[in-house]
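Risk mitigation, structural track. In case the binding assays with L-homoserine fail to produce interpretable data, a predicted complex structure has been prepared as a fallback.
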Amino acid sequence: MAEAGLRGRATAFAPASVGNVGVGFDVLGHAVDAAGDTVTVRRIDTPAVRIGRIEGLSGAFPTAPEDNTATVGLLAMRAALDLPFGFEVDVVKGIPLGSGMGGSAASAVASVVAANALLDQPLKMRELFPFALQGEAVASGSAHPDNVAPSLFGGMVLAAGDPARPVLVQVPVPEAVRCVLVHPQLKIATRDARGVLKNDYGIEEIVAQTANLAGFLSGCYTGDLAVIGACLEDRLIEPQRSGLIPGFDQVKAAAVATGALGCSISGGGPSVFAWCDSEATGQRVGTAMLAAFAERDVAADLWVSPVESLGARLV
Ligand code: HSE
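Fallback model:
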């Protein structure tokens, strides 16, 4: 790595992520290092932020710097640090748009990590989080941290405490655990997936979800796969969103029948994830989930990857 502050250009990769992890709506997410976005940032003399090229997977990406997830964080960084120079950004999208795989977060994270390497006095990774979160907010209409935090730090991250200033907690996950992520080739905008959610929740639903989130986290800390499996069940959000994903019930049934610890919607969907106790189980479960989507004539992509994984880094 070149010396910070002396380089004119830097490239960073940020991984995809599974938001909510079923039981932690808007507060829990984990990285999926098998896919991600790559952003190159150039330091320019002009005191502005510009978008250069957007390549890789296609999609209708905003081209105005104040609307694009990859540049909004840099606008915020420039303003907060009162930088006399600007940035130009090239994005290579490796995460499909509207997939529920944290693509907007990954672009936002990769761009602030790359730009940070161009600062005369680079910030700590933790200090980059608020800037990336602003990029996420412009893309999805909500500053939820459950994709940005794991994409930045890797592994599984809990945003605890005050939502306005969350305490970010790295939650240990048993090393053997694999996340099976299946992306049906359909699009659901996060805004739309949030739009279907009701605002009022009964006390029974809240108690059930609280019990599952607490149990799931305790299973992760103690490495107890039986507890993880018993608690990885979304009682709050999944019932409201599952109808947006063709074949969801069959895909989930296939995952559970072939040995998954649990299965739910990744972020706002349509991607579906399952946690498994090993690589071999993960491959078996993934094959069954793909077959269940195929039964409904839905083409899908599959990744099987460890949950304990790296976050964003310079490349
Ligand atoms: N927590 C967010 C949601 C994640 O479920 O709407 C979106 O990827």
